[in-house]
Amino acid sequence: MQTKTHDFAVIGAGLIGLATARALLQKYPGSSLVVLEKEPQVAAHQSGRNSGVLHSGIYYKHGSLKAQLTAAGRQAMLAFCDEHSIKYEMTGKLIVATSEEELPRLQPLYERGTENGLALEIIGPEGIAEIEPHVKAIQAIWVRQAGIVDYRHVAQALAEELVREGAEVRLNAKLQRFERKNGVLHLQTSNGEVQTRIAVNCGGLFSDRLARLTGIDPGLRIVPFRGEYFRLRAEAQHLVRGMVYPLADPRFPFLGVHLTRMTDGEVLVGPNAVFSLRREGYFSRDFELTDTLESLSYSGFWRLVLPNLGTGLGELMRSGSVRAFAREVQKMLPAIKAEHLLPARAGVRAQAVDTDGKLVEDFRFAHGDGWLHVLNAPSPGATASLAIGEYVAAQAAELVN
C-alpha cells in the first residue's frame, strides 16, 4: 500500500504550530495536512506553561514584526475565543514605577506604546489606588488593551477545529530523522513515517536544532531560561484585581516578576528568569547533558552572561529563596508576605541568542528546501500565534509555487 503524501506537515502542536496549520488550511483549501507532536497532548510546553496574558504590544519596537503581529494576533485571539466560547477577561494592566530612578524609563515606554496604536494613560498614586488599591507606586502606565486567557483551552479548540477540517493531529510522534527524495520529505517519527511536500518547523525550544539538521544556519541558538511562578494563598488573592507589572529593564526581553489574576481567580506571581540546564527543564534539578553542553559551548551564551552576572545572581537568589522572591514583589505590593506564596508551575522560555551574545528581539523565520522554520517566537508568541500562523502560511507560497 502506497504511503499518502501530504501537502503540509507541521512539527509541533503548541499554539504556533496549531495556528500555522489552521492558517495553511484556510489559505490552501482542500490541502492534506498533518500536525506532528512528540508529547501525548497538545500545548505541553511553552503554550501550556505561561501566565495566560493577552499582551498589548506596548514593549515592542514600532514597525517590527513583533509589534505588528502582536496587535493583529490579539484581535484575532479575541475573535477566536468569542467564536469558541473560551473565557477571557480584558483586565488591563498597570506598569508601575516604584522609585524616582525608574521614572525616566516611563515616558519612552508610553511613547512606544502610543506609536503602536495603544490608548494609554500615565497616572499617579490616586489613579493607581483606584485600579489596584494595594499597589504602591509613584507613577504607572495604565494599559487597557491587555487581558488574560487560558491558552490550553485555545490550543485544544484549535486542535479540534483542525480535525473537523480534515487534518490529522498525530500525538506521540517525535521526529527522529528525515530525508528528501524526489521533492518529497520522508519524516520518520516515533509514531510512523509521514511523507510531505512541505514541512513547517514550529519546534519551539528545539527549533534551532531542527533548522540546522535541515541545512539552514539560523545564526542563533536557543538558550533556555526557566521562569518559576508562585501563586497567592486564597486569603491574599484580594490584593490583586488584574495585572501589575514592574518597569522592565530595557536590556532584557524578560518583563520582571509580575502579578496576574487568572480567569479562575488564582493569582500567579512571577516569573523569574534562570538559565536552565535542560531545554524542557521545569525543575532546578532537571539536567540534560546535550542541552547543557550546547549552551555552554556557544560563544554567544558567554557574551550574554558575563556582562550580566549581577542580574543573573539576583535571579538565582529569587529562585532559591521565597523571601527574596517576596521582597521583589513587595516593591510594588507591600502587603505581600513570604507566607502568602505557594509554589506553582514553571515554564521555559525558548530565548534565541545570536553569536554576538545579543538576545534576538524580533520574531525570526527562515525557509528553504521544502522547509519553513519559525526560529524565534517566545512571549508574546501565544498572543500573536494566530497572526504568526497567517504570516508563515503566506511564506509557504514561495515553496508551493
Overall geometry comes to globular
Q: State the CATH topology of the largest domain.
A: FAD/NAD(P)-binding domain
User: Main β-sheet: number of strands, strand sense, barrel status?
Assistant: 9 strands, mixed
Work out the number of β strands. 20
Question: What would you note in describing this structure?
Answer:
By secondary structure, the chain is of the alpha+beta class. It folds into two domains: 1-92 and 145-218 and 362-401, FAD/NAD(P)-binding domain; 220-354, D-Amino Acid Oxidase, Chain A, domain 2. Helix content is 32%, strand content 27%. It contains twelve helices and 20 strands. It has helices spanning 15-27, 65-83, 103-115, 125-131, 151-164, 207-213, 289-296, 299-305, 309-320, 322-330, 381-395, 397-400; strands spanning 5-11, 33-36, 53-54, 88-89, 93-97, 120-123, 139-143, 147-149, 168-170, 175-181, 184-189, 192-201, 220-232, 243-246, 258-261, 267-270, 274-275, 341-354, 364-368, 371-376. The strands form three sheets. Strands 5, 6, 7, 13, 14, 15, 16, 17 and 18 form a nine-stranded mixed β-sheet that branches. A hairpin with a 2-residue loop joins strand 19 and strand 20 (371-376). Helix 1 (15-27) packs parallel to helix 5 and helix 2 (65-83) packs across helix 11. The two termini are 29 Å apart. 49% of the residues are buried. The mean pLDDT is 93.
